[in-house]
Structure formats: structure tokens, C-alpha cells
Amino acid sequence: MGKALALANQKGGVGKTTTSVSVASWLAASGWRVLLIDADPQGNATSSLGIDKRTLPRSTYDVLIEGVAVGDALVVAARERLDLLGANPALAGAEVELVSLSRRERRLGLALETVREQYDVVLIDCPPSLGLLTVNALAAVDEVIVPIQCEYLALEGLMQLINSIDLVKRRLNPALDVIGVVMTMFDPRTRLANQVVEDVRRYFPSRMFTTLIPRSVRLAEAPSFGKTIFEYDPTSRGAQAYRSLSEEVAARLALA
Amino acid sequence: MGKALALANQKGGVGKTTTSVSVASWLAASGWRVLLIDADPQGNATSSLGIDKRTLPRSTYDVLIEGVAVGDALVVAARERLDLLGANPALAGAEVELVSLSRRERRLGLALETVREQYDVVLIDCPPSLGLLTVNALAAVDEVIVPIQCEYLALEGLMQLINSIDLVKRRLNPALDVIGVVMTMFDPRTRLANQVVEDVRRYFPSRMFTTLIPRSVRLAEAPSFGKTIFEYDPTSRGAQAYRSLSEEVAARLALA
Ligand SMILES: Nc1ncnc2c1ncn2[C@@H]1O[C@H](COP(=O)(O)OP(=O)(O)OP(=O)(O)O)[C@@H](O)[C@H]1O
Ligand SMILES: Nc1ncnc2c1ncn2[C@@H]1O[C@H](COP(=O)(O)OP(=O)(O)OP(=O)(O)O)[C@@H](O)[C@H]1O
Ligand SMILES: [Mg+2]
Ligand SMILES: [Mg+2]
């Protein structure tokens, strides 16, 4: 049975998409079979892999609302051993449409059950909110990775996020656990970044990943070419950091 | 009758809160009477002004869901001539609760009607989504300012945002108009930032504000002290840029 994890944080622009695409692509390049699910109506994970949202035969919307099986909705082979369930703007309507559907928080989890055997790891990129799309993702996985930008405003919402994860754990998914928090856009020259890292280390002493992801414009450039950081600039600091983070993730997931 | 404007963009972390707090505080310091509404469950605008979310007597949630009048819910005098309607985590539940309420898209607009006379400008800080909180804000105002981060992924969602604004304009609020787009976190040294600015200039030839907001860590530090950039570091590049942007906004709003 494959492991499933969500990248979640309602704070916007903290590196959820960059982390999910980078980790998914490194795990696939290392030999594991990976499914990446784009659960954000912005579809940034989809376009970061160079997939045109307008050409998706099916998408996460179809799985959540129409009940299409994940296997049939897949965009296969975004990369070798990396399948993508892409997102398009139709997903923006899903938050409201889900409210009146039965089992509204569990629809993604139920849909995933049929395919989890086929993958070693499933990653879900969440939108910047704690609405029904993120709740569906948290109800469907075993683990959560929380990317945290090294800025003050990013600390603000942490308590709210942890409370929401606890709520999903109590009501919907007892197996859910925060496997780790990863500090992103770290600029060692600023006092603020170092202070935030210290604050988070105190908050989550055992959960913070050792790897700190540096702020690096190469990471922001790669999506404009539809390439992962490993394809775009494999020797960059961003690529090295995400390689080392991915190794930590693989170890914590105990991937065989 | 005061002017009302929303800061909206479903892409996360692009500077919506930083722009709304900076512009609101400069307009108030210049003599106009300003109301800032925090419509984001993260409550970043509330804490950026140094207000403790846990001590709010009332909040945006009470106005939207309980129908409390804006006048009674106000946290008065966050600064001289600057009132705040703050947000707390309860607002996170509003998206789902609004779905089943009557006039669900208009509740903020209706609540605002009673107080708009008392202010020269009302600004609404939106969450990073196109859900019912943002729709309520767009239905309640005359103008929208779109902050756009100078990065590729921030361009992705622009079409979707413009389509959503058009939809609200057609169905709920014919007066709605995009008064301008402001480029944020601009780093002139990177090719990517210059390229994104050129792309947006082609997209919105007449709407881009002349002022480009530079990336500056002082802007990220100020909220940790509960201070505006003008209080924290008045001579910084960030303060100068937001002063110049605020003057452009005042001119476009034709504030007397
Ligand atoms: N370490 C980094 N250094 C520099 N830029 C980065 C880094 N990580 C991500 N970025 C850029 O910062 C922006 C925000 O990152 P990203 O889109 O991954 O965050 P997100 O949390 O997924 O955002 P959203 O909340 O909108 O979904 C993007 O333009 C991305 O390219
Ligand atoms: N010009 C700037 N230079 C450097 N940092 C900035 C700048 N503007 C904003 N920031 C910082 O970047 C982060 C994102 O900005 P902000 O929170 O204002 O964006 P937002 O669009 O409101 O985010 P969200 O989508 O989560 O509501 C914050 O930590 C903020 O302090
Ligand atoms: Mg994202
Ligand atoms: Mg904000």
C-alpha cells in the first residue's frame, strides 16, 4: 500500500506547489512510482510540469464532483514513473458544489482507494485555504508536510492549521499525522528569517526537516519553462536543497 | 459617499495584506477617514496593525453570518482616522456557512451600506481564493486593486481572476471595475521580474500603476512589530514605494 501525503498551509505563497512538484519529481527520478494530485484551482502544479490545463481530458474536478475513477482521470506519465491528476479552473467551483454532496469530505479519499496500490507515494498539492478541497486532501492521506515561509506573517496561521489538522484527525482520519515542517525561502542574511526558524524549531522540536530551502530565483524561473528544478538547473542551490529534502522525506516515509 | 475598493488575487502571498495595510494607513495619515476590513480568516491585516485577534469584541464573521451592523462590530481607531473591522479564525467557517444563507453573496455589501457615508475610503483585504468571502468583497465595492507578484506562477491565475471579476460585475455589481494592478516584490536584478512586468504591461496597458513595489525585507519585518511600514522604517524603499502608490490610488479614486 503506497504512502499518501498532503502539502498544506492556508497561508499563501509559502512554497506548497514548489515543494510538491520538486519532491514528487525527485522520488520518481529515484525509481519510486509517484502520483501527484493538483487540488488547487490555480493549477500551478499542473503547469509547473509543463502540462496545458486546457488539454486535460479529465481533472481533479471530475474525480471530486462527477465521481470519475482516479484511474480514468489520470494524465499519465507527466514524467517517467510520475503520473499527474491535474487541475483546471473548473475546480474553483468545487468548494461550493461539494457542500451539498454526500460524504463531501471523503470524496477524494474514496476515489484514491482504487489506485493507491499502484503507487509507492501519492502527493497532494493543496490550495491556500482550509476549505473543503484541503479537508478532502487531509482526509485522504496519512501524512502532512507543512511548508513554512521564513517570514512573520507565515507564523500567524500555524496554530489555526494545526487545529484544523487535529479536527480532521479526530473526525475523519485518525491516521493523520504531521510528518514534518519544511522552512522555505530561507535567506540566512536576514535577522527575520533566522528568528522565524528559531521560533518554529521551538514550536515543532522533533518535526522540522533538517534541510532549509534557500530563497533562490532559479526555483521561481523553472515553472515558466514547465520544468522541474532538477531539469532546469540541476546544480543550483534550490535543486540541491530539494534533493536533500526529498531524501529526508523518503526516509521518514520509510520507502523501501 | 465614500469609495470602496477590494485587494484581490487568489494567488497566495502576492502582497494583498501588505498593500491594503500600507495604503489604508497612508490615506488615514494624509487626513482621509478610512475603514479597513479584514476578510481573510488568517487575520493578517488585523495583526499587522498590532490588534490581537483574540480580543476582538466583534469581527467580520459577526457581520457576515450573524448580521451584526458594521458600526457595532468595529474596532475603532486602530490608528487616527483608521478604523478596522478585524478578522479571527471563526471566519474560516464562514465560507461553508454562507452557502446556505439568503443573499449569500451580498451580505457584506448590505452591511456596509449603513456606514459608507462615514468614511472617505473603505478597503477590503481578501483571502487567497475566489470563494464566497472574496465574492462578497467584490460585490460590495466599486473598484478592485490586483497586487501581482513579479513571478511566473503569479501570472497563471490572472485570467481566472479577471473572469471572476467579470462574472461578479455581470451578475452582482455592474459598477465593479479594476482600478489598477500593482507589481509587488519587484527585484530589478532578475530577468524573471523584468519579464513578468513586461508581460503584465502588455496585458493591462492602461491599468498598471507606475509605482513598482520593490522586494524589501523591512516590509516583511514591520508586521512582526504590529507596525505599518511608515511607523517601522519611514525612509525605507518599501515606505517610499507605498507612499507613491498610495498617492496614485488617491488620484485614481479622485479623493477630494
Ligand atoms: N525557495 C524559493 N526561492 C524563491 N522563490 C520561490 C521558492 N519557492 C517558491 N518560490 C516562488 O515563490 C512563489 C510562491 O511559491 P509557490 O507557488 O510554490 O507557493 P504556494 O504555497 O504553492 O502558493 P499558493 O498559496 O498560491 O498555492 C512562486 O512564484 C514560486 O515560484
Ligand atoms: N515588497 C515586499 N518585499 C518583501 N516582502 C514582502 C513584500 N510584500 C509583502 N512581503 C512579505 O511577503 C509575504 C506575503 O505578503 P502578504 O502576506 O502581504 O501577501 P498576501 O497576498 O496578503 O498573502 P495571502 O495570500 O496569504 O493573503 C509576507 O510575509 C509579507 O510580509
Ligand atoms: Mg500552490
Ligand atoms: Mg493576505
Offer a few descriptive terms.
7-stranded mixed β-sheet; 13 helices; alpha/beta; binds magnesium ion; homodimer; 43% helix; 256 residues; binds adenosine-5'-triphosphate; 15% strand
Q: What does this protein structure show overall?
A:
The mean pLDDT of chain A is 94. Chain A is built from 13 helices and seven strands. The termini of chain A are close together. Chain A has helices at 16-29, 44-48, 60-66, 70-73, 94-99, 107-113, 132-140, 152-156, 158-171, 191-203, 217-221, 229-232, 237-252, and strands spanning 3-7, 34-38, 75-79, 82-85, 121-125, 143-149, 177-184. The longest helix of chain A is centred in the C-terminal third of the chain and has 16 residues, at 237-252. Chain A has 256 residues and is of the alpha/beta class. The A-B interface holds A 10-14, 17, 41-44, 47-48, 89, 92, 95-96, 99-100, 127-132, 149, 151-153, 156-157, 160, 163-164, 187, 190-192, 217, 220-221, 223-224 and B 10-14, 17, 41-44, 47-48, 89, 92, 95-96, 99-100, 127-132, 149, 151-153, 156-157, 160, 163-164, 187, 190-192, 217, 220-221, 223-224. The complex binds adenosine-5'-triphosphate (2 copies) and magnesium ion (2 copies). One magnesium ion (MG) binds next to helix 1 of chain A. One adenosine-5'-triphosphate (ATP) sits between chains A (12-18, 40, 44, 128, 184-185, 213, 215-216, 219-220, 223, 238) and B (11-13, 128, 151, 153-154).
